[in-house]
Design goal:
It contains 21 helices and 6 strands. By secondary structure, the chain is mainly α. The protein folds into 2 domains: 372 residues, no CATH class; 105 residues, no CATH class. The strands form 2 sheets. The chain has a 4-stranded mixed beta sheet. This is Glycosyltransferase family 39 protein. Keywords: Glycosyltransferase, Membrane, Transferase, Transmembrane, Transmembrane helix. It comes from Floridaenema evergladense BLCC-F167. GO terms for molecular function: glycosyltransferase activity.
Amino acid sequence: MENTYSLRKFVITVAIPIVTFWTVLFLFRYPLPHEDDLFFIGAAINLAKGGEFTNPLLEAWNSVFSSGKFYYHPPFHSFTLAAWLKLAGISTTSLLFFQYLCYNIFSLCLALLLRFYAFPRVTALCTTIIYAAWHCNPNPFQSSGFRHDALGMAYLALGLWLLTKDSWLRYFLGFCFLGIAVFTSPITSAYAISFGIAIIIINFINNKNNKNFPKYKYVTLRLLAFVAAICLVVILFLICINFDFHGFKSVFALHASYRRTSTIEAIPVFIKFITRYYGYILLLPTYILYILLSLGIYWKKDRINNWKLKILLVGSNIGIILNVLFYAGAIWFSFYFCWVGIVSIISVMFKERSKIRIYAFLVATLIFLSSQSLNILSLIEREYVTESQYQKIREVVLDKPKRKYAIDEIAARFVFDYKLPKNSIAWNFIKPAPDAYPISAKDKKPGTIWIVSKSKLGHYVPEMQPDYPRVEFMGRKFNSLPKKPFDVILIP
């Protein structure tokens, strides 16, 4: 085991700053709402209330699938969150704190992983800040909100860290958490496979130099740990879906076909994602920098003797490629792991040349800030609405308790604090699958009251909200950045 600093120093200089950082963001009520919030937490809320594994907010979608169960995604996120909500209560604060715990688990486990492989402390701190820019983005359209990604990443980081200790028990626990990560957020499988194998290879090489190394016994025990972990995770999965594997498979596969492209088309679609609109400024430079630094590791192989870094880098490259092939649209996963690679390479590649390392970090910082330029602009120019506006809407709902309400994630948080009216449905998923958002005033059914943010209504149904204030900067209007993203309107 290679440690560049003691556990005490780790706690003082890394762990405490990380927890403090996430605490500050929690106190500022991050993460912001995301358009998928009601999709991902509806089933958990229903379970916490003693209901079945279904999301009643997805009324239109549930009518398409015969089972009515929330089989669109694997169940572990819903059941984990439901247990938490049963304990902490259903409110915005409890949901925010759940995400806060996930962020801390991920950051601390990743920091321990980086410490184990002798990366400088700055690596853990930088990767935490970059992780926050993904999940707690100040731009509501870029934040991950209450999606399942944070929990999946927490399980992933915990599983990978457990694998670093080369023992049967740690391998068993590590494989368990990696499996749980996959059954929480399937895209994590790209990194569970790639980094998991990389860590196992490093452990094997470390032991191979031992003359008394029992190869057969070593491999057999670790294979048994893997099989036992997979069996346990699969059993838990089957219990969660009440052993209805056929029903789950049919719904999950159909939903996946709506969301992802075929493997053959994955790379062209990914390139399109990172180059369209402002992609040449916001996304593409990151991938170029990552590729250049990765090549530099092997080009300067005579100067960089950290063979573990090279194996981990190969794992990172394979993970990003698998990410693209599995789900090209999940660009924020690959984007984040590119930055983990960039920070790690710079901190090691120029370890003995402090001036060059400073310049390299400055260039990387400029590219990162460039990638966040629209998000920073969104935060600076944002205007908020008063609580009295939300109170007026609540009073209308109290006067008409039997009406049906189509609400979005903005109204769910700021108007209702997730204490939703009984007859609520998700406005974002008001149309039957594979459609979702309403696109015309004709999609508003008689008797259903809409409570949604003005900016979203204006974006998707402009005939009902033709204009809403956008962010303006240096004479340019940014149509994708609403000035009042949390301004809510009630349409009877």
